[in-house]
């Protein structure tokens, strides 16, 4: 099916009929054929021509720069309509098979162009995603630090515990909790970054204050 001069009412109606079962003027991706006809149409077709209107709005959604990247295509205009779309080269001879595209090279060019655009969009998305800050896994821990007896200086013990500094460790609130026979244990909270701080290493460091600390237990462990 061909269509006439799209600047006329008859031509635009024929274009609407032509696009009834097609998304583009030529092939399965936008081409220069779409650009040429788009420029000839000049303005959005009437709502009574839904196929032509849909196609026009779709081509208009591309920027001028994007349209220039479209591959060549053939516009099925009738002889009376003007077009600058590149036409297929004339055959050298009726029996010359060199001009016959047996392997669909035109489709390959369109597929390659579509693949290039897809790769560019995927790369842009990946670059954008890589700039987002990574989520840091953290845990909130409550430690029970038990002294040797009721004569242990609990204030000094807490002071020593808080001297422990590690990248990814933040000490929080603390309190003394009675355990019986006049003995209190130090219950202290901390927040750690899971990839940087080992809980086992932290408890070992606390237990190194062996003049004050009898043992260290984990009272609570929650992921943040």
Automatic annotation (TrEMBL):
Translation elongation factor EF1B beta/delta subunit guanine nucleotide exchange domain location: 138-224
MF terms in GO: guanyl-nucleotide exchange factor activity; translation elongation factor activity
Cellular component aspect of the GO annotation: cytosol; eukaryotic translation elongation factor 1 complex
Composition skew (Acidic residues), residue ranges: 94-112
Source organism of this protein record: Parnassius mnemosyne
Name this protein carries in UniProt: Elongation factor 1-beta
Elongation factor 1 beta central acidic region eukaryote domain mapped to chain residues: 102-129
One Pfam family cited in the UniProt record for this chain: Arc1p_N_like
Gene3D superfamilies assigned to the protein according to its UniProt record, in alphabetical order: 1.20.1050.130, 3.30.70.60
Family: Belongs to the EF-1-beta/EF-1-delta family.
Region Disordered: start-end pairs: 74-113
Record PROSITE patterns: EF1BD_1, EF1BD_2
């Amino acid at each position: 099916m061909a269509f006439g001069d799209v600047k006329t009412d008859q031509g635009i109606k024929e274009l609407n009929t032509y696009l009834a079962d097609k998304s583009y003027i030529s092939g399965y991706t936008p081409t220069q054929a779409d650009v040429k006809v788009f420029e000839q149409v000049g303005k959005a077709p009437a709502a009574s021509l839904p196929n032509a209107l849909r196609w026009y709005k779709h081509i208009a959604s591309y920027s001028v720069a994007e349209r220039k990247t479209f591959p060549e295509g053939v516009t099925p205009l009738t002889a009376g309509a003007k077009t600058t779309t590149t036409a297929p080269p004339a055959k050298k001879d009726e029996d010359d098979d060199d001009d016959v595209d047996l392997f669909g090279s035109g489709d390959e060019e369109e597929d390659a162009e579509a693949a290039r655009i897809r790769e560019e969009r995927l790369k842009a998305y990946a670059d954008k995603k890589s700039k987002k800050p990574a989520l840091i896994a953290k845990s909130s821990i409550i430690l029970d630090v038990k002294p040797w007896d009721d004569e242990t200086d609990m204030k000094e013990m807490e002071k020593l515990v808080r001297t422990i500094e590690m990248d990814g460790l933040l000490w929080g609130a603390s309190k003394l909790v009675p355990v019986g026979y006049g003995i209190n244990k130090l219950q202290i909270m901390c927040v750690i970054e899971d990839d940087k701080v080992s809980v086992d290493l932290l408890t070992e460091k606390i237990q190194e204050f062996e003049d004050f600390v009898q043992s260290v237990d984990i009272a609570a462990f929650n992921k943040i």
